[in-house]
Amino acid sequence: LLNWNHHSATQTTYPDGPFAFRYLICDQKTRRMFEGNANMAAGVAVNNAIQYFKCKTIFKLNPTTKKLAPVENPIME
Question: By percentage, how much of the chain surpasses pLDDT 90?
């Protein structure tokens, strides 16, 4: 219904108005155009480190399709 497919701790810190605009009104394509911040970069870095350390298959954003695609982890082979 709302096409809300992601959650992060930062979302809970937004006031009601900006939260409603970002996550209830804007679609995912529009949200991806918003400027990132240090919390987002840190979340991505931690996620990548865990995936490389623990997973045989990692998921990367395909630049052509803009969707996650499974890739074999070269470290775990």
Answer: 25
